[in-house]
Design brief:
heterodimer; A: mainly alpha; MetI-like fold; 2 strands; 2% strand; globular; B: alpha+beta; twelve-stranded mixed beta sheet; four-stranded antiparallel beta sheet
């Protein structure tokens, strides 16, 4: 197991390095951030001084080597726009995204799993078909559009929920979270639901397929013959067996939700990392872009690792194979 | 009704009144662009500047027409051609309780060139000052190396911070243009968390949550008129759709830059209104008339047709500005004949310097005379996310030019790419905008048309090779003329020189809209700033 984790880490280090090179040179090719950041009133001399101050006058490979040197010491540089450490900036935005993605995931599971299992159970009846038709909508409706409709209906028309932004936050272990704040949750409902819709459909489809297959297995027939109640069969025996592929997929989806909740965050003006990334790209804030993408790689690698571990825990066959080898 | 019930209803009623009174005094603004810092000297940028103007004060204020008026200074005059005397307001207190005096200004000017990691410092406006004299704590004399009429305007662009609040004894500061020695200055981060956000402005900073909102509360000890709104929340709503939705949902009371396509819908709502006013921003087309060969031209036989004044005129009069204003800008723009709208300093009065008359036949004749009867090819560079409908305007211009035989390819791109390429002189012809930071005609003339020169600071945004000695000379003279009337006349003359040489194609002035709940009112500012202190309750 240890060898496995180490190998995983080595792989991810390579990915992080490659990402660093691609992003650094890619952003350099787009343009010089000073051209956008400096006040139009600045004189040629001031523009030049500023470029020198930020080190943009040096050749790109020198800039890159210096960046790598600093990165090796854990310093990913300061944001050109905000003047703060890029890592600190990302960490500032991270809790908002994490809590939104987590709540989205909870919604996705809470909605998708029961619906999917039920749809698998009633695959040939109208209930099952209706749920499956519903998931097609969940898949195909674009995120931003659903978000806008939610705002239109719940915020503008009914005025039940706030349209945008993040509400009150409470500090828990030094992290500002709004899930636990009294006025914070209502700000999260719409964006989390928007995020969850696609994933819920995914979960429902996986759960349905799994359930259909599992229902034909011998152990279900035995259980039925034994007189176990249908609901116990479905939600205990079947559910356990169909969870493995769902957990694997959800793990990946959580990663993508954290890294690419950009669209939802933009529609709801949610102050998460996605918003930071978009703003940084438009302003060519290279340190933040590089740090963000490196962190994304890290998140994906970590989640994959956790998923693999969960996998072994959930599936005795994998677990036992691991123990004997 | 029994007594206890009476009391209950009385309490309920008073509670309601109290709640509604509370709500009425809060103003929630949806910002279109977020300030990058609360530090007033960190980044010379629109969103940052409008924020510091609510927490801090400049020495000289600028009103909605960008005309100067007394703020921390009560009066100013040129004592000699190279020195200005400012009389300072007495009894002004910073929010930490320390008294404002002349040394705070020197301390501020000392800090501006040394702000760490600043992507755009305010040195542009402080570098003219070479020496300060303080005859008494409320009089400041600023010396410049040459006659410098723009000093009061320059001193309207930066916030005054307190020396004492940063435990610096003002009297001990030794000012030189190269630095003030080792003084203790606050870090930008200290402004963001509120510790150093000590100002004299109408509001106090409560909190700055990056990406979320900025909370302000009224400064009870502000020296001037108290603003009507007790608390202000500025929410960062940078995407257009969510910003408008937040207004409709009642989550904010006022939004900046509502998208043009939504204006009609907002106006149709009886609880909302749109306020709009002309801005100091000109949208123009620049031509590489002084480069040979000019990039992005085709079918010219190696020559640069833009060097010919007839070609430049033809390009300008082939554009139907009224059509652009009414069809593409939805009427929210004003056709331009020079680089600053009428009414601002150095611009011609209404009726003079009208937009060039749209005349296709004459444009064709001019092209033929210049030796291009078949026209030629142009690549027109433009940003597509910087100005209102920028890429669409460029498309319209391309079609208008096609009618006189010019084959135009529009090269639209995101502003990050555009400005880098523009500064590398990669465009033969490009569309861009210029807002006059000082509110004077000298600003666009100096940046866009004057010959680039590092020493004088001229031509910082003139990547076209255009150079006109008469224009440079007149501008130089204007910038050294302290007498306002004479300077304005010189600036007008300089503008005429540039316009009659068709050095640049002015298209239109942007009009800035704001959308708000009808409860509120504000007068639009030409500098496009949203200042909460200037938002008041609408008179019923």
């Amino acid at each position: 197991m240890l060898v496995y984790i180490l190998r995983r880490l080595a792989q991810s280090l390579f990915v992080v390095g490659a990402m660093m090179v691609i992003v650094f040179f890619g952003v350099y090719l787009i343009g010089n951030p000073i051209d956008i950041l400096i006040s139009p009133d600045a004189s040629l001399q001031e523009i030049e001084d500023t470029k020198i101050r930020f080190g943009f006058d040096r050749p790109i490979h020198v800039q890159f080597l210096q960046f790598v040197g600093n990165a090796a010491q854990g310093d990913l540089g300061r944001s050109f726009v905000h003047g703060e450490s890029a890592v600190k900036l990302i960490l500032h935005y991270m809790p908002a995204t994490l809590e939104l993605a987590t709540l989205g995931l909870v919604f996705a599971i809470a909605l998708g799993l029961p619906l999917g299992v039920y749809a698998g159970y009633r695959a040939e009846q109208w209930q099952g078909k209706a749920i499956m038709t519903g998931t097609i909508f969940g898949f195909s409706l674009p995120n931003f559009w659903v978000g806008m409709l939610f705002i239109l209906f719940f915020s503008v028309y009914l005025q039940w929920l706030p349209s945008t932004g993040r509400g009150e936050t409470v500090e828990i272990l030094g992290i500002h979270l709004s899930v636990f704040a009294p006025g914070g949750l209502k700000y999260m409902l719409l964006p989390a639901l928007t995020l969850a819709l696609y994933k819920a459909s995914l979960v429902a489809r996986l759960a349905r397929a799994g359930t259909q297959e599992a229902l034909m297995q011998d152990y279900v027939k035995f259980a039925r013959a034994k007189g176990v109640s249908e609901s116990r069969i479905l939600f205990v025996h079947v559910l356990k067996n169909i969870l493995i592929p769902i957990v694997a997929v959800l793990g990946l989806e959580l990663g993508s939700m954290i890294a690419f909740a950009v669209v939802t965050e933009t529609v709801f003006a949610w102050p998460g990392m996605g918003k930071l990334l978009i703003d940084s790209i438009t302003k060519l804030d290279r340190p933040v872009i590089v740090a963000y993408l490196m962190m994304t790689v890290l998140v994906f690698v970590t989640i994959n690792l956790v998923v693999d571990l969960l996998y072994t825990w959930l599936d005795p066959r994998v677990r036992l194979a691991g123990e004997t080898s | 009704m029994n007594p206890s019930r009476k009391i209950f209803w009385f309490l309920m009623a008073s509670l309601l009144l109290w709640v509604s009174a509370l709500q009425a005094k809060e103003l929630r603004i949806g910002l279109a662009a977020e300030p990058s810092s609360v530090d007033p000297h960190f980044h010379n940028l629109g969103p940052n500047n409008q924020l510091w103007k609510t927490i801090f004060d400049p020495l000289v204020g600028t009103d909605d027409q960008q005309r100067v008026y007394p703020r921390l200074a009560t009066s100013w005059r040129a004592v000699t051609p190279t020195s200005w005397e400012f009389k300072l307001r007495t009894g002004v207190k910073f929010s930490n309780g320390s008294t404002f005096d002349a040394y705070d200004i020197i301390y501020t000017v000392c800090r501006i060139p040394v702000v760490k990691d600043s992507p755009s410092r305010f040195t542009t406006y402080t570098k003219a000052a070479i020496r300060f004299d303080v005859p008494d704590p409320h009089t400041l004399i600023v010396h410049t190396s040459s006659p410098y009429p723009l000093l009061p305007v320059d001193f309207s662009t930066f916030a005054i911070i307190s020396a004492k609040a940063n435990s610096v004894d003002g009297k001990s500061i030794k000012f030189t243009p190269d630095g003030c020695g080792a003084l203790k200055y606050p870090e930008s981060a200290e402004f963001n968390d509120g510790r150093a956000a000590v100002g004299t402005g109408p509001y106090l900073l409560e909190s700055f949550r990056r990406g979320e909102d900025i909370r302000l509360k009224r400064n009870p000890n502000h020296w001037g008129q108290a603003p009507q709104n007790e608390t202000v929340i500025m929410k960062s709503l940078t995407a257009d759709g969510p910003r408008v939705a937040a207004l409709f949902a009642g989550d904010v009371d006022l939004i900046e830059s509502p998208p043009l396509q939504d204006l009609a819908r907002i106006k149709a709502n009886k609880n909302m209104k749109v306020v709009q006013g002309i801005s100091n921003r000109i949208i123009y087309i620049h031509m590489a008339s002084g480069m040979n060969p000019a990039p992005g031209l085709a079918g010219t036989g190696g020559k640069n047709p833009l060097a010919d004044v007839r070609v430049r005129e033809a390009l300008s009069i082939a554009i139907n500005r009224d059509a652009i204003v009414s069809r593409i800008m939805g009427g929210v723009a004003i056709a331009a004949g020079e680089l600053l709208p009428a009414g601002m300093f150095g611009a011609h009065p209404v009726g003079q310097m009208k937009p060039p008359v749209f005349d296709i036949d004459r444009a064709k004749r001019l092209l033929t005379e210049a030796g291009y009867p078949q026209g030629f090819g142009i690549t027109l560079g433009t940003p597509n996310d910087r100005y209102i409908n920028d890429a669409q305007v460029a498309q319209a211009v391309a079609q208008m030019w096609a009618r006189i035989g010019i084959k135009v390819q529009v090269d639209a791109m995101t502003s990050a790419t555009f400005f880098s390429r523009r500064n590398k002189q990669e465009f033969g012809v490009y569309l861009a905008g210029w807002g006059s930071g000082t509110g004077e005609m000298s600003s666009p003339l100096k940046a866009l048309l004057a010959t680039p020169d590092k020493k004088t600071g001229f031509g910082a945004t003139n990547p076209t090779g255009y150079s006109n000695k008469a224009l440079d000379d007149n501008l130089t003279q204007a910038l050294q003329t302290v007498d306002d009337a004479a300077r304005e006349e010189l600036l007008r003359k300089t503008s005429r020189i540039g316009m009659s040489d068709w050095a640049i194609i002015p298209l239109h002035f942007e009009v800035t809209p704001w959308a708000m709940n009808s409860k509120f009112s504000m007068s639009p500012r030409v500098d496009q700033h949203t200042l909460p202190a200037e938002v008041s309750f609408a008179k019923k």
